[in-house]
Design brief:
Layout (H helix, E strand, L loop, with lengths): L23 E5 L23 H4 E8 L4 E8 L6
Antiparallel strand pairs: 1-2, 2-3
């Protein structure tokens, strides 16, 4: 699966729910939790049969205007093999 934010295919286009300013992408959540975190499997099965880590890429978002932090689930795209 391919995350469009991680691979620079699109920009984060979300607004802060508190003040309405544009949120900034601070990277993948897994990058914030430890040096080996991106390589730890997250195998929660979904109805589609994919693990949660294959269906979405969770990113941290930040609002510089009001200091709001949140996690956003970014839908990934299937890659061709």
């Amino acid at each position: 699966m391919l995350c469009p934010l991680c691979n620079g295919l699109q920009q984060l286009n979300e607004r802060c729910p508190l003040c309405g300013h544009e949120l900034e992408d601070e990277g993948r959540t897994s990058d914030w939790s430890g040096p080996y975190a991106p390589y730890t499997p997250d195998a929660v099965p979904l109805e589609s049969g994919l693990s949660s880590s294959e269906a979405v890429c969770t990113h941290i978002a930040y609002c510089a205007s009001c200091d709001y932090w949140c996690e956003l689930s970014i839908a990934t795209e299937a890659t061709f093999r």
